[in-house]
Structure formats: C-alpha cells, structure tokens
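fyi for ur records
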Amino acid sequence: MRDPKDDSDHLEHLRLAWDRRQFGKVLVAGVGGLTLGELAFAQSPEPKPDLTVDVVIVGAGLSGLIAARELKRAAAKAGKQITLVVLEARSRIGGRMYGETVSVRNEKGENELGYVDFGGQWVGDTQTEMLALVAELNIEKFLSWEEGRSIQSWKPRGSATAQETGFDGDLSHVLKGDCVPPLISAADAACKAPPVLPDCQKNSEEAGVWNGLLALSVDAKQPWKSSNARTLDSRTFQDYLNDAEAYGYTKWLPTMQSHIGGSGGFEPEQVSLLHMAWSQKVAPQSETPEKWLLKGGAGQIPERLEEQLGPCILKGAPVTDIRHDIAGGGVIVTTTRPVNEPLNPFMRFKAKAVIIAIPPPLRKKIKFDPPLSLSYTGFMNGSPMGSMSKVHAVYDRAFWRDKCLSGSAAGNLKTCEFIADSSLKSGEPGILTSFIAAERNHCLRDASEAEVQELVLRDYAYYFGEAALTPKKFYHVNWDTEMWTGGAFTSFLLPNIWTLYGEQGWREPVDKKIFWAGTETSDRWPGYFDGAIRAGIRAAGEVKDQAKIF
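which gave:
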C-alpha cells in the first residue's frame, strides 16, 4: 500500500509510469495469454495501434478490476480466450480503495500493527457482493468497536455550552428517532472514570423529517421515472428541510447525512432532492453499512485482485481519446506514453469494446470521437464529486476505552462531525478516524497540514480528553486534491440532472462499444465498495452480451 501523496502530480505519474520492463512484461504475457504481434511506433498521422485486444478497461479501481475479472471468468467458463488491458492513470491501482499498515511502539517497547484505509473501510451485512469478495479472499472481518458510551454533542447557535447525550453508536437509530442507550458491558465496572452523560431520548420531530425523506416514492433502477420525479429533481434537499421547518438540531441531524453519509460530501442546498432520496433508498443508513472492518484493511484487496488477473494492468496511463473504429467496428483508445519517449508520446489500443470505470466527472478528461450526445455530457457536468478529507490519529492504545467510551462520537463541532474507533478488538494500536466534509473541507483547502492536524485533534480532545492531542501518527488525505479522483466518497447530482440526462447519461452503453462502470453507476450501494463490485459485474455482462467478444 502506497503513500497517499503519490498521485498528486501528473508529470510525476508519467515519469513513474510505464518503463519498458513493465510494458514488456505485459507484452510477453500476452495480455491474457495470447500472442500479440509486433509493436509499432509510427509517426504517421494515423499510426498503427500498438496493441489489439478484445476489451480495454479504463480505471483500475475496484469496479474496473472486478469487470476485468468477470470477463476473464466468463470467457474461461465458455471455453474461450479473451485479451484485455486495464489502463490506470495513477502509478498505483485501487482508486479510492487503498491504505497502509501502520506500526506503533507501545508502552512496553513492542511494535503493534494496525491498518488505516485512506478511502472506504467498512462493510455492512446487506452489502452481499463485498462480503462475498472478502470471504473469497479469506480476509477476516471484525465488528466495529461500539462497546461503551458513544457521545452525541449538539451546541445551539449562540450558546456557550453544548448538550451532550450518550447513544449506542448507530446513527441510523438516532435518525429514526429510536435512539438506543449506550451498550454497557461487564467491563464497565473496571472503568476508571465512566462519563456522566444522560442517555439519548427519542426525538420524534427529527425522525419525522428523516422518515419523510425516506417515504418519498423513488424508483431505484430508474430514478427519472419516480413519482413526481421532475418536481423532486427541481428542488434541493435544503428546500425540503425549509418546508419541514427543520432548524437547529432538527436540521443538523439529516444535514450530517449529506455531509458524511455514503453518498455525501455536499451541502443540502447543492443536491437534488430526488438524488438525496434515491441515495437513501438504494444505500440506506438504516442497514448499518459501517458494521464490519477488515483485518489488514480494505486497501489490500486491489493487489489481491491484481494477482488473479495477471499482467494486464498498465499504470501511469491516463486515457486521452476514445474514438469509434469505423473500419474495424470497435474503438481506438489512446493513452499517454512516458514523457521520455521521443518518437510518439501516445499509445493506441484497438478493441471491440471499452469499459470506462471512473467517476462520472472524470469522464470529461477523455475526448470522444464522435462526441458524446448531450445526455452524456450533461450528466457528467451535473454530477460533481463530493468534497472530503479523511483523517486518522494513531495512538499506542485505545485509551478512551478505559473510560468506557466507544470512540464513536457525533456532533456539530467545527471540523469533525463524526468520529469512529478503527482499532482492532485488542485496541492496540488505538485508531480514531474521522472526515472533514463538504463546506468544512472547502474552507480548509489552503490550510497547512499542521493546521488541519491541530483542528482535528482539538475535536478529538473535546470528546476523549487531552490524551487525544498527542498521537503517535497522524494521517490526512484530502481527496479533492487527488487529480484522478477529484473528491469523495462519490459524485452527487445537481438539481434537474436525473430527469434531463439520467436515462442515457448515467450508464446506458454507447453503440454497443462504450460501457460504464464505477460505483456511481450502481443502483444498489452506490458510493460504497459493494456498489463498485455490482457495477463491474453489470458492465462485464453488458460487454459479453452486446459486444459479442466471444
């Protein structure tokens, strides 16, 4: 797992990208085991493609890797052979799925190993595709730590003090108005100083606002066909909150879901009400998507998949052009060659089909010939990425557990609205994880790393005490600055985009040649790993059925 700073500079990508050994390895392996013929480094206006394959996949995130694996498996099942190449712009694979092992020396002078994921990290019980992949790869999962008291803090505007209550750590219960008191274990008796907090109370007013959103009739597979779709799509989530007279805490609670929910990273006034309702229907917080963590981190999965695929992935290869191959009936995909190649700065691949497995706004970086219709370009332009940073503070041990605190907290603090314990069950090392989302993240775009760290740790200390101010290690990954992602967790739709452009622009294949994957194209768990897997499987199936590659 690589350093989170390794893909911030485009030229560095290209310098780190293909050396001749890497490309030669792919050629020798035959991109799936077949003989490939000769390379051509022509300088003519219409150079001969460097490589002819059955399928090109753009993006080696989870969805692109799964699409590649599904195609290879389908071909093997049919007794056929398939050649494919996966083109990845970064110098690493995994997209928003990566992290690293972290080692911390404890009080005894021993090294404790933990894991931090810079992208997603959790899995829920109904995320069946992700759970199946985890089981197949023999990765151990364990429950997120929620024993003890989780803290909710709400500070009314203009007030000098905050209202604090304890809850069970599951935000879906708070949203539904069924707030459950903290889970108190037998270990409570050993706590040195359990916090004195009133248990949370049922909050019917806030629940009514959230349940009203969930009650909106939305078509999961075709949102543009939902009841009153145009009306819902023309309004924002903020319009809905205004109509519900949601102010203060009653406004903050559902607003937090637009900030840090699985399809979040935006403010309520930015997002279509139809999109907000759709995202909660197909990826509901009520199904507890943050239930399980993975031993070794989610970031280990892309490398495991790469081992299964073999040498068909080319890194440091951002795609610049995709055009119809009039003569051959497929597509010609152009990608950059390393900057030190004097003869031709581009490489071209001829294929029967291409799967584009990158976030919708990044599709705009590719020139299409003939140009895509307004349905596709309108959808790209109307689906910006959410704004998000992820932060981890690593301690030698989960000291907050000594006080019967779960490490889970939610509140309208200045920087972090939600904090979670990402430690192993042993609590060694101790890891507190949070997010800086939406406008909060935009406001810190010019802040130094030291300034961000101080702000985050001050919020941690508010809940867990002064010991939180001195972690052994601190990580801050601002996804807005990752040029091959542009934000996180996922893209969201502005008003009127679903109804104007969604029917085609979301994921409809183009002329049985261009297909779309990526978690954003899933109609179940979009914005999550599970959605990425589902999208990869769907796109592979469309290619097999429509492009007739075997």
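Confidence is low (pLDDT under 50) at residues 1-21, 32-45. thats all i got for now
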